[in-house]
Design a protein that fits this description.
This protein is α+β, with helices and mostly antiparallel strands and about 375 residues long. The protein is built from 14 helices and ten strands. The longest helix is centred in the last third of the chain and has 19 residues.
Length: about 375
């Protein structure tokens, strides 16, 4: 993709109505014979993956083996590399990773091509033309704030530098390896003078200031640390933040805020491992998650599925789900970094984080 910015409108391409929603019987039989699917880095509260996994397993009678639920995109790719030729339970069949990892994994021979029956309704801008990888859902980065502990929730990136937030903010991943986290640095750059997603230096300098002020907690924020107050403020994909708010159910009270500047949106992608021990189950999984039923499961988890425009055109989005989505105005100025921009930015951030920011972000 060579355009500087991919807008929400570009993702909302008018697509043909989906046909062939039921998976081919021969594929179902072959997948059931394999009996298992191994997934990796799919937390149950990430775009409603808990429901996705359970409904798939119940529908087809296939056991889902879940590896490293809190893993990063880079760790997913490494799991494929480390398990080439291994047919055991540590070898992932499928991956869900940040956009930039798709072409890289394809170039390394780590992916197997497959085109689902609803292929034509996936926008061309977010899929490999040969079927090696394809977009699945997208969202925008938003602040998630435990308002029981932080009475004055930050509204902008500049707010986070205030002394009142000392020891309160943490990232939702390690920017050196996590797509969600390096996209956060891009967002901070755009909020601090960068003209485009090509320039990440302002974001690195911003996080250096945040770290020097003592406002940046060097832990990866997860729902438990947000609720406990260990990391009461974070920034993550809106679908994760909104899902956490539902899960907390007021204990603690939380607020989800799309910042007024530096709004960055991003697409994740699906792919099948070239070394998948259960290749038919992997294909059946793809058929399921790209069916109307699977796409609506993601939408229930606040992730805009890649086939959203097709669903809306056919009036296939239930009113109760549509009513829970954030207002479109919050995303009016959202920037979608292109694949080339993400690839360059992730390298620049990984190379510069330790020397410029100097914060070693770790899991608990």
């Amino acid at each position: 993709m060579k355009r500087a910015v991919v807008s929400l409108a570009a993702l909302a391409i008018v697509c043909l109505s989906a046909i062939g929603q039921d998976a081919p019987k021969a594929l179902v039989a072959a997948a059931q014979k394999e009996g298992q699917l191994t997934v990796i880095a799919l937390p149950h509260d990430w775009v409603n993956y808990g429901d996705m996994i359970s409904t798939f397993s119940q529908k087809y009678g296939i056991t889902v083996n879940e590896l490293n639920p809190d893993g990063s995109s880079a760790e997913e790719i490494e799991a494929i590399k480390a398990n080439q030729g291994n047919t055991g339970p540590q070898a992932p069949d499928v991956i869900d990773v940040g956009l930039k990892f798709g072409p890289e994994a394809k170039a390394s021979g780590l992916l197997a091509p497959y085109k689902v029956q609803t292929w034509s309704s996936i926008p061309d801008s977010v899929k490999d033309r040969d079927g090696y990888w394809y977009g699945d859902y997208y969202g925008a980065l938003a602040f998630e704030v435990n308002t029981d502990l932080v009475k004055n929730a930050p509204k902008t990136w500049a707010d986070l530098l205030k002394p009142e937030y000392k020891g309160k903010f943490a990232l939702a991943g390690d920017p050196r390896i996590s797509a969600q986290a390096y996209m956060t640095v891009i967002a901070a750059s755009l909020a601090n003078g960068a003209k485009s997603s090509d320039d990440v230096k302002p974001g690195l300098q911003y996080f250096a200031k945040l770290n020097q002020a003592g406002n940046l907690v060097p832990l990866i924020a997860v729902p438990g640390t947000i609720a406990s107050g260990e990391t009461p403020i974070t920034i993550e994909w809106d679908y994760n933040a909104l899902a956490n708010k539902d899960k907390f159910a007021g204990n603690p009270n939380t607020q989800v805020i799309v910042p007024t500047t530096g709004v960055v949106a991003g697409v994740y992608i699906q792919a099948i491992s070239a070394y998948a021990p259960h290749p038919n189950a992997a294909k059946l999984w793809m058929e399921y998650i790209y069916s109307d039923a699977g796409q609506l499961i993601w939408l229930k988890g606040y992730g805009h599925p890649v086939r959203f425009n097709d669903l809306a055109k056919r009036k296939a989005v239930p009113a109760d789900i549509a009513a829970k989505l954030p207002p479109a105005a919050a995303y009016a100025n959202a920037v979608f970094p292109t694949l080339d921009q993400q690839t360059a930015a992730s390298k620049a951030i990984a190379d510069g984080w330790d020397t410029i920011v100097g914060a070693d972000i770790k899991k608990q």
